[in-house]
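Lab notes, practical 5.
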Amino acid sequence: MTEHAGRARPSPADLRVATYNIHRCRGMDRRVDPSRIVEVLRHIDADVVALQEVVGAGPEGSGQAEEIGAALGMGWVMACVRLLRQHQFGNVVLSRYPIVHHSQYELSWRTCEPRACQRADIELAGGQIVRIYNVHLGTAVLERRYQAGRLASYVHDHRVAPPKIILGDFNEWMRGLATRTLSSLFESVDIAAHLKRRRTYPGLFPVVHLDHIYYDGRVDVRSVEMPRTRKALMASDHLPLIADLRIGF
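Output from the prediction step:
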């Protein structure tokens, strides 16, 4: 007899995830062009994408999230952290699978720019749930120290079952408290084991590794990519970071 009175464990699911700070769709030539971000994402062909620095809807109509989602045929949810020239501004999760739950957790610190962790629960084809945490931490050291503890308490909540994927722009120029805290609680996608280039920012001449992917649960990292196509190098100041995962339940 198998566990749970003979019920078989669900089959593993393959999931391609990506994190990408799109810099308000402002490219290295300083032109704002969402279509370039769309082309980069279409080439990536990920199932779930965590975007940071996205301009949302405002008085003049729809925003970048709606445009990108519609062009790719993906569902999306946005976590607004502040207004930018009367438009929403924050993080977005794009998904080919249904998004069955969406929330955000406050990470703002004192007078620094507002920040949040976005959570989106994705329902895969077999009905299994994967929890996606889209993160964009602050640029100040003391700010990130505060955010590290807050983020850990949200994501490490034992009342919320794994698998969990935590990804985004962590803004740590070197191994700081946020990196150490998350690495102590979760497994990390080690890009050094998969890529010759280990830095993600700035895109043209990357010197630091700001973008990370962590996970909790039965997750096997199959491959990691960081495309340096001409379009990716021009579309944003960050490069997208992609991981092919096999997720067990």
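Observations recorded by the TA: The mean pLDDT is 90. The longest strand covers residues 75-84.
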